[in-house]
From TrEMBL:
Membership in a protein family: Belongs to the HAD-like hydrolase superfamily. Cof family.
InterPro entries: Cof, HAD-like_sf, HAD-SF_hydro_IIB, HAD_sf
Species lineage: Eukaryota, Discoba, Euglenozoa, Kinetoplastea, Metakinetoplastina
SUPFAM superfamilies: HAD-like (SSF56784)
Needed cofactors: Mg(2+)
CDD domains assigned to the protein according to its UniProt record, in alphabetical order: HAD_Pase
UniProt keywords, alphabetically: Hydrolase, Magnesium, Metal-binding
Annotated organism of origin: Angomonas deanei
UniProt GO molecular function: hydrolase activity; metal ion binding
Keyword DNA repair: no
Keyword RNA-binding in annotation: no
Identification of the protein by name: Haloacid dehalogenase-like hydrolase/Sucrose-6F-phosphate phosphohydrolase, putative
Amino acid sequence: MSGKGKIKAVFSDLDGTLLNENHKISEYTLNVLKRLKEETDVCFVVATGRPYADVFPTLTDCGLEPDYIITSNGARIHDRNRKMIVKHDIEPSLVKQIIDRANELSVASEEESVELSKNENLCDPRIPKLINGRKFTLNMYQEADWVVDMGIPEVAAAYHPKFQYKDIGSKFYSLSEADLQNVHELYFLGDNSNLHPLKAQLDAQFSQQVTTTFSIPFIVDCVLASVNKGRAITDVCERLGLNVSEVAAFGDGMNDEKMLATAGYSFTMANANPDLVAAVPKATGIASNEEDGVAKQLEKLFF
């Protein structure tokens, strides 16, 4: 299939899609993206669950200059000059309610602690089933800051060195509404088996106000119910004067579902979450992120 003349913009997720397992863009992929910019009029947009304070230095290091940058699953959108053009924050009172509920659910009982401390069938070796007596950690992106109740260095290593967490320990649970301004995303990190019950509880209590999604197996993202990558690409298309039928989107995680469902041309990575593949049957499967799947598909579409 050729995309020449049909596809006017390309939207791509980062982790598990454009980036390899070392959270880098390969030279092969970078060269194809440079050709896309130099040899076509196609707009290129990054769409990720990561916060902009982490994404900006990562893009700079890679020498990548997207036309738009969608971060925190659509809670923030910046233009090519990194000027913020879309901002969606969670109300401080709602942030407080979610933190209070998650704090209650994170504490393991004595019986649970015995079982969880065995660390059997971990979804990721970096993430134990019991973290200082808790089943998962609480995190929030508050404008350019990453604030946590418990930091895990092995996880922080996946972020840019210039973007590291602020571990405030148990103070996290007593933050007042005045302390919770400009929060655009909450997320919870833990073993997949501990996160599913948490997600179910949050969905039952807050589904009208926020949306929770598994961006990767050990992280549940939480943003405003009106925020998702599908809405974000629609916002960008309106600015570009395009119809969503004229764009292609690439993704691998459940937070990519609405983006892939919205785009006219959708592609799932070979390493994609099986639930995503099932949720967006119209999407075409392509090679994995380790095999430069996005770059190879762009070559087929445009060169």
